[in-house]
Hints:
CATH superfamily of the largest domain: Lactate dehydrogenase/glycoside hydrolase, family 4, C-terminal
Number of strands: 14
Number of domains: 2
Amino acid sequence: MDTNKVNLRKVAIIGCGFVGSTSAFALMQSGLFSEMVLVDANTEKAEGEALDIVHGVPLARPMKIYGGSYDDIVDAAIIIITAGANQKPGETRLDLVKKNVAIFKSIIPEIAERNCQGILLIVSNPVDILTYTALKLSGFSKDRVIGSGTVLDTSRLKHLLGHHLAVDSRSVHAFIIGEHGDSEIAAFSSANVSGIPIYEFYDLRGFYHSEEQTAEIAEQVKNSAYEIIDKKQATYYGIAMAVKRICEVILRDEKSILPLSVMMEGAYGIRDVVLSMPVVLGKDGVETQVPIGLNQDELKRLQNSAETLQEVIADIDFQ
């Protein structure tokens, strides 16, 4: 990002529904920013959420939080977009496409017209399609238009593997890649626990049907959002923590590796589609994609995931 034109301590959130407001709350508690502007089509909603959160600032850290307009986001270091229709019970993320692409056609040009220099973080679903949409409509560099991708799915995978293997989930190194959705892939062939290949660690723990068990865990991860939506109508705490983590990596220039929605340009035979792959993330956005080892089955499923997304993209009018 152009640090001469952005306030590194300022974040903007566009969309103040469950995900946007919960992300705002998580970011207030994080201490990463000293200024946060909330923008929503319903201005009173944005102002109300800002008021509710700012009243807790005396119990946390000094911070300016307010409801605003697109004119207030110009100098934000990170612009987070959570606006969009919610995923309903029985509805897939891809079912949301037409509704949310239409919403993005009203949001992204507002950002592009103001020549915002910050990083654009897309969180709305379906995140891969909408990150692609944001890239096309904004004309911004692909390095600074990213989607939250499978950061949350990967966290879910680590949690379930850690629980199953009775080991700290932070010692589990594994990725969900591909679409943030039904065609996602758990890349078990490169997964490990502190350097020990995942299947060897299964043996170490006395589990001898590891492939069946990992397949079951991958299915649980894929269906996690549906289960939560079925039980409480929406998911927002997990993704808010994922948003906080992504912002943390950018602001601190950590160069951490996260599985984010990024434009593919030929790796694994995939191009002109956005999906999640591990990337090195820093203060300027995506520095480089990180190749990971995939077996033939995982590679084929990744390519199929890309084809699924490309079929959806082909039906979108970006004009």
